[in-house]
Amino acid sequence: MSFGSVLEHYTLLSAVIFAIGVAGFLVRRNVLVQLMSIELMLNSVNLALVAYNRLHAGNMNGQMFAFFIIAVAAAEVAVGLAIVLQFYRLRKTINSDEADTLKH
Amino acid sequence: MSAGSLLFFVCAVVCIVGALSTVAARNPIRGAVGLLATIIGIAGLFLALEAQFLAAIQLIVYAGAVVVLFVFVIMLLGPDAGAGSSPAAEGEPASRIARVFSAIVVIGMLITAVSLLADPEAKTRFSAVTADHGSVEAVGGLLFTKGLVPFELATILLIVAVVGAIAIARSRPPKKRSERVESPTRRMFHGPLLARDAGRPLPKGQTLGQEGAE
User: Fold this and answer.
1) Domain residues of chain B, as ranges?
2) Which chain B residue's Cα is nearest to A13?
3) Is residue A103 part of a domain?
4) Which residues are paired to A30 by β-bridges?
């Protein structure tokens, strides 16, 4: 049995990491940890894209997609952390339950 | 066990342990280290998948920039960075049910994944690839021919994100008029800002030490 040369192993790993990211995003109330969970999900998607791309020798469209996902994730994390800082200045906490100014 | 199998196995274990510690960590610094472990594991898997360029990008962008940014913000927030969950919300039944349910889902997925690892049905094997599959030249050439328009759009996105992040992080919530205090330092160096304020005392709670010197 050789691991690492079969597509299914990579898809399984990607699904597990994605599920962990979803669970972290839904359960945790710390905005920083929620952002990290989003990063986990994006990474797992990248892994699946590159694994499927590996099936097609000489075609690198999947890797190109993963490249753009990395660029978008970098932009997202920069803006997200700026918003977290501003939220902390406003409410003196980073509990996402406290982000309810629009509700009142 | 061949070298390829060993690489996959080590990277997969590092990824899953890192992801679990990211999600479960009380201290966000540990979460950031877990995220770093996951990222490095995935970079190793990219190497196993003949995507050398992406492995390098992954290490530079994620491990070099994103995780460092997270650590900066955690350091900036100080001890408040870990105070994400209030004890009151922890005890809520809905929160407890959500935690138990998501733990069951994740553990179930892990067990399913491990049991499927040895599945003989799993046989979508990778074929051999050309030497330049995933190299910097090949992916870069694709980026500047087929993917030129999205590439330029990504540059615009990054510029807008950087400017937006600076604008958001710099601006402070406006202070109310009543909370605004006239700074004694400012009066000391510049004198009264308006001529009609010359004889007026400073706001309550501030000393008038320098008024005589003007």
Assistant:
1) 1-79, 132-172
2) B12
3) no
4) A95
Sign of CA dihedral A29, A30, A33, A38: positive
Which of the four pLDDT bands, split at 50, 70 and 90, describes residue A20?
Answer: very high
How many structural domains are present in chain A? 1
Domain holding A56, by residue range, is 7-95
Structural tokens at position B78:
């100080």
pLDDT for B213: 46
CB contact at 8 A, B54 and A54: no
pLDDT the model gives residue A56: 85
Quick: pLDDT tens for B86-136: 555 666 788 788 888 888 988 998 898 888 877 777 677 787 777 788 889
The token duo for A13 is 């790993």
Give me the interface pTM, i.e. the ipTM.
0.93
Residue A95: φ, ψ to 5° = -80, 125
- CATH class of the region B1-79: mainly alpha
Q: For the segment B22-42, what is each residue's pLDDT rounded down to a tens digit? A: 999 888 999 999 999 999 999
Give the three-state DSSP class for B194.
Answer: coil
Q: What is the CATH number of the domain that holds A71?
A: 1.10.287.3510
Contact residues, chain A, for B168 at CB < 8 Å? 79, 82-83, 85-86
B31 to chain A, closest Cα gap in Å: 7
Residues 39-58 in A contacting B (C-alpha not used; CB under 8 Å): 39-40, 43, 46-47, 50-51, 53-55, 57-58
**Least Cα separation, residue A94 to chain B (angstroms):** 6
